Input
Amino acid sequence: MNQSKRFSVYVFATFLSVGILVFGFTKINAATPGKVSQCAASGKTIKSIADEAKVDEFSCFFKKWEGIETLHFKVGVTNVSDTPQRFRVNIFLENGKAVGGLIPRKTAKGLVKPGATAGFIYPVSGMPGKPGEVTLIVKTIAQ
Output
């Protein structure tokens, strides 16, 4: 009887130790909420940018969105052409998730003027950690 209690304590201690190690390593991989970090865990970011655009800012951070800490990408694009432009931004992650949209979102106030910068923050639903690889595509679209 004494041996079975001792065995139970060892098994419990082993599972507890493994749980603490696993939890600790997942916390190391996650970025601090509200802090800017490198967007890809492996450091690999692929960019395809239109000639009329210059990406001034591409950063990511974690903050609450719909009640859950999730990954957000902040993109700032400058129009380097001599005509007003509208840009399509796509961000693809290695796990198949993707976000994106238009800059400016609505054209009621006009397009991005030459030399002007516009941007947007894109939340990625269901991403509590950094992706391994990020692909950023910025294209111009017809007015």
